[in-house]
């Protein structure tokens, strides 16, 4: 049995079902991130683990103990919220010590634990201050300190960094990860920021409409999404999608048609029976090329908008009426608006989704094991 085990969990609020059949196993010392659009159930699931909500159906065990109906204060979990919820009239020291005093720890033990947390969080010079004399980032560290001193079996974070400005958020992200490695704690962290999820998580849980869409390492979710929702959610800018109808399978390719684009021959193979079916083609902006690769789909396009981000350019190119494709290309000089060019979609970076939005297994045309000739000159 895993360290934290959630089994067949449902949560209803009257007739509204906020969580649907949640199953999840978290190993000790893992850093798990819940991510998903607003209202998908992230906070509800976290609060259910902490005991602030009771599941309608299902079971939660932590370190071998069934905690489904155990009072929050008896679960040995600590939760850090988005709004730090500090006591304004208490000093930093007393804010951090508060829970320990409540539980009747000795003065010496409290002193020891608070000093250790303050050292970990670089709060030592601030212990005598009141919350209003602190910056947002410092307040958030106090809230984390309050969780650390409890030495919980499990840390629960609900968007702890979303009140901070972008620069501070990046710094706190690194500090939180350092803390995680130093204290080897187990943590479940909620965010709706997919960059935060990708950079912090050992494994990501993607939630959508109360369900788990996919669980995996950041790389797994990026490279092998099991459905269109995950493919579109992970990655920034998001994956491009094109609606196609499959006309027929050829020996080495898939012949398709798309409205406004006409015929498209995809250099991929699949075992699935998809002749005559509607499918969605997916390709990430970073995989769209401006020069030909060995086997790729060619799409004539007209440059619409170029977003210059310094290190890279985001090219929004019109491939048909009202149909844009985004390409992430190297920074520096970029093609200008209304410039005509050809976009190349390499076969090995294509995804295909069926009408139920599940991924269709495909393989690119390169024979396994044979080296791929890169950057071969295109013969016009
Ligand atoms: N006490 C409640 N009573 C009724 N519905 C609730 C209650 N709490 C949450 N919900 C509903 O459950 C769904 C999930 O809410 P939840 O707060 O878990 O979303 P979330 O993923 O944390 O969203 P956000 O990213 O906006 O914080 C929402 O549709 C919400 O309106
Ligand atoms: Mg929430």
- Order of strands across the biggest sheet? 6-7-8-3-9-10
Roughly what fraction of the amino acids lie in strands?
A: 25-35%
CATH architecture grouping of the largest domain: 3-Layer(aba) Sandwich
Could you tell me which ligands this complex binds, including any ions or cofactors?
Answer: adenosine-5'-triphosphate, magnesium ion
- Please report the total strand number as a whole number: 21
Roughly how much helix do the residues carry, as a percent range?
Answer: 10-25%
**Low-confidence parts lasting 5 or more residues at pLDDT below 50?**
367-380
Structural class assignment: alpha+beta
Name of the level-1 CATH class of the largest domain: Alpha Beta
Order of helices and strands: EEEHEEEHHHEHEHEEHHEEEEEEEEEEE
Q: What is the CATH T-level topology of the largest domain?
A: Rossmann fold
Shape label: elongated
What is the CATH homology-level superfamily of the largest domain?
A: P-loop containing nucleotide triphosphate hydrolases
Please give the radius of gyration in angstroms. Answer: 25 Å
The profile of the biggest β sheet is: 6 strands, mixed
The averaged pLDDT comes out at 92
Number of domains: 2
- How many DSSP helices? 8
* Termini separation: 60 Å
